[in-house]
């Protein structure tokens, strides 16, 4: 195998002006299962696909509540995600203790002087030879004074403010869906937003369907504290994945229970659009190759293979979810 | 976990190694705190005691008495915002030492504070608040401290310092206007705090607040509120020997913070009871 001369630590540049360790860390994000975040004018929604390392195990959590107004979805190394999650929870608690108010989202993800926020934490990892970048991508969704936010926090230490975003394995299909639909998100109701999130997620699902076990959804927004729905919380309502999510949200947030006939339009709508979603899948390898072009050097082909076959990765990258 | 070397070799006993050659436990503690995930990334300074004060082997000494002090600060809400008022005296004991000390300060566009008590401590507190507003400015993201956040922050700072038996010797009034609502709160030197529609510190609690209770309404116009404030200031000035007839009025409204130039109030000392104040109080001088 070609051995890259310039990728042994984060302080060594390649002559092309790249730092491979950072790019490898960004690859780790692509190998985690997909996560989607999107927002309307009033709400932000996170949706993730969960993986189980084995038939006998439970599914790995991917969405974490940070505070009443904020939560994250992670993709990549779960352990790194947990560390950042703990850090963010701490910051929010401290902020609440000192200022008696919720921490503004932008502040949390912003890299600023003495305030070692998430971006800063990630960035420090890219400038110390004995450290490594975090191998996890975060979608930070929340609601503050300025309205709902969806931020993407990259292992490189960059952060971006998004209207809608998807990361993780085969997320290109989800991105394509979001790119086609995002103009309608602004005025969308919470129900619609969740539906869009699940559509996007469905698009990135290679085979099989969304179920209550393999996906989790979280919403946060105006007058709505961060609410995570997975496993037990979802289970009582569930018959099929998309139906259940709609059911559950209608019940929780619209104050009205939608079942059977009332729910049917949602489900048929979702079912009808599935072929289209499958069609998008076809575009995906090309798009992903394009996206991964930056990391074309050593070991790239192998990484890509791992990303593509993420559904059955088994021993390949057991820590990545 | 940082490796913590013993301050001396167990074999040769204390004093065998120059103590400066080794990091002191306090210095290590400090370093560890800064790096720990649990350490707050901002605002920790206000809660820490100067390590220099802990070094040197001498018993720790704290402020045991205030030296240069300011007297009451008053605050009332009205229809369009809040008014704060105080005189401009910095008294050295009972000497009227500094007559133009501005005890009402702007924190940002939505908030002002006023302080009575030790004025050097107030200057320190203002430095903390200025650092916070500077940070807000540098972040350049449109966020700034809301009045209730400033109040909460000061509560924490004062209570923490009290817990270190090193209190900041102040009573502070926080006034602000945000989201269409006036905010008025106060914090004492040991962290006691509350919010109300009218507040006062020190002597003002006894002299001005009865008047406010009687006459204050939340829907007062600015003129009415100013008139009430003048009356309260005058009453405080008549009866508080540590005050002077040079006042400032701070106004916080939707338009922002304005702090008036110092002004004097017309007083009349010819009241009969002033001529012989002890007449109705047998047993006093």
From TrEMBL, chain A:
Residues 6-28 form the Proteasome alpha-type subunits domain. InterPro entries: Ntn_hydrolases_N, Proteasome_alpha, Proteasome_alpha-type, Proteasome_alpha1, Proteasome_asu_N, Proteasome_sua/b. It holds the Pfam family Proteasome. GO terms for cellular component: cytoplasm; nucleus; proteasome core complex, alpha-subunit complex. Gene3D superfamilies: Glutamine Phosphoribosylpyrophosphate, subunit 1, domain 1. GO terms for biological process: ubiquitin-dependent protein catabolic process. The keyword Cell division does not apply. Residues 298-314 have a biased composition (Gly residues). Its main location: cytoplasm. Residues 274-321 are annotated as: Disordered. Keywords: Cytoplasm, Nucleus, Proteasome. CDD domains: proteasome_alpha_type_1 (cd03749). It comes from the Eukaryota. PROSITE patterns: PROTEASOME_ALPHA_1 (PS00388), PROTEASOME_ALPHA_2 (PS51475). Residues 277-297 have a biased composition (Low complexity). It is found in: Cytoplasm; Nucleus. Belongs to the peptidase T1A family. This is Proteasome subunit alpha type-1-B-like isoform B. It comes from Chlorella sorokiniana.
TrEMBL record, chain B:
It is found in: Cytoplasm; Nucleus. Component of the proteasome, a multicatalytic proteinase complex which is characterized by its ability to cleave peptides with Arg, Phe, Tyr, Leu, and Glu adjacent to the leaving group at neutral or slightly basic pH. The proteasome has an ATP-dependent proteolytic activity. It holds the Pfam family Proteasome. GO terms for cellular component: cytoplasm; nucleus; proteasome core complex. Gene3D superfamilies: Glutamine Phosphoribosylpyrophosphate, subunit 1, domain 1 (3.60.20.10). InterPro entries: Ntn_hydrolases_N (IPR029055), Proteasome_beta4 (IPR016295), Proteasome_bsu_CS (IPR016050), Proteasome_sua/b (IPR001353), Proteasome_suB-type (IPR023333). Its main location: cytoplasm. Keywords: Cytoplasm, Nucleus, Proteasome. One of its GO terms (biological process) is proteolysis involved in protein catabolic process. This is Proteasome subunit beta. Component of the proteasome complex. Belongs to the peptidase T1B family. It comes from Chlorella sorokiniana (Freshwater green alga). CDD domains: proteasome_beta_type_4.
């Amino acid at each position: 195998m070609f051995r890259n001369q310039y990728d042994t630590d984060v302080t060594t540049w390649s002559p092309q002006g790249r730092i491979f360790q950072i790019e490898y860390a960004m690859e780790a994000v692509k190998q985690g299962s997909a996560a989607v975040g999107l927002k309307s004018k009033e709400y932000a929604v996170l949706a993730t696909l969960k993986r189980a390392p084995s038939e006998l195990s439970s599914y790995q959590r991917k969405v974490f509540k940070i505070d009443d107004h904020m939560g994250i979805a992670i993709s990549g190394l779960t352990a790194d995600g947990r560390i950042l999650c703990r850090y963010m929870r701490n910051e929010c608690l401290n902020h609440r203790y000192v200022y008696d108010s919720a921490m503004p989202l932008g502040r949390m993800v912003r890299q600023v002087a003495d305030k070692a926020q998430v971006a800063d934490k990630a960035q420090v990892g890219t400038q110390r030879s004995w450290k490594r970048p975090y191998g996890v991508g975060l979608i930070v969704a929340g609601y503050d004074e300025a309205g709902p936010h969806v931020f993407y926090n990259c292992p490189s230490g960059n952060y971006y403010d998004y209207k809608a975003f998807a990361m993780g394995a085969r997320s290109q299909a989800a991105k394509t869906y979001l790119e086609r639909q995002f103009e309608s998100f602004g005025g969308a109701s919470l129900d619609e937003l969740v539906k869009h999130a699940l559509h996007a997620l469905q698009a990135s699902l290679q085979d099989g369907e969304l179920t209550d076990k393999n996906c989790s959804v979280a919403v946060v927004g105006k007058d709505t504290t961060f609410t995570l729905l997975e496993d037990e919380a979802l289970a009582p309502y569930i018959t099929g994945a998309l139906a259940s999510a709609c059911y559950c949200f209608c019940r929780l947030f619209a104050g009205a229970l939608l079942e059977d006939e009332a729910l049917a339009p949602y489900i048929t709508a979702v079912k009808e659009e599935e072929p289209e979603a499958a069609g998008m899948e076809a575009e995906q390898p090309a798009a992903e190759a394009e996206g991964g072009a930056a990391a074309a050097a050593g070991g790239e082909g192998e990484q890509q293979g791992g990303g593509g076959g993420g559904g059955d990765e088994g021993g390949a990258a057991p820590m990545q979810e | 976990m940082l490796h913590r070397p013993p301050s001396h070799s167990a074999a040769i006993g204390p004093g065998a190694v120059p103590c400066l050659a080794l990091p002191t436990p306090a210095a290590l503690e400090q370093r560890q705190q800064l790096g720990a995930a649990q350490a707050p990334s901002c605002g920790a300074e206000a809660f820490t005691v100067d390590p220099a004060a802990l070094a040197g082997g001498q018993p720790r000494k704290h402020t045991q008495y205030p030296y240069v002090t300011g007297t009451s600060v008053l605050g009332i809400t009205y229809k369009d915002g809040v008014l704060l008022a105080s005189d401009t005296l910095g008294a050295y004991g009972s000497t009227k030492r500094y007559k133009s000390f501005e005890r009402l300060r702007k924190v940002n566009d939505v908030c002002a504070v006023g302080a009575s008590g030790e004025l050097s401590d107030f200057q320190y507190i203002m430095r903390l608040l200025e650092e916070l507003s500077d940070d807000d400015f540098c972040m350049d993201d449109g966020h700034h401290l809301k009045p209730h956040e400033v109040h909460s922050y000061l509560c924490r700072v004062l209570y923490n310092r009290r817990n270190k038996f090193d209190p900041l010797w102040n009573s502070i009034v926080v006034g602000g206007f945000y989201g269409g609502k006036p905010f008025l709160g106060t914090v004492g030197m040991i962290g006691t705090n509350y919010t109300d529609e009218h507040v006062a510190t020190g002597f003002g609690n006894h002299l001005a607040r009865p008047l406010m209770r009687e006459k204050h309404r939340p829907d007062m116009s600015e003129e009415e509120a100013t008139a009430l404030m003048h009356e309260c200031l005058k009453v405080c000035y008549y009866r508080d020997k540590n005050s002077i007839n040079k006042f400032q009025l701070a106004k916080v409204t939707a338009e922002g913070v304005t702090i008036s130039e110092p002004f004097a109030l017309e007083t009349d000392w010819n009241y009969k009871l002033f001529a012989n104040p002890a007449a109705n109080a047998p047993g006093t001088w």
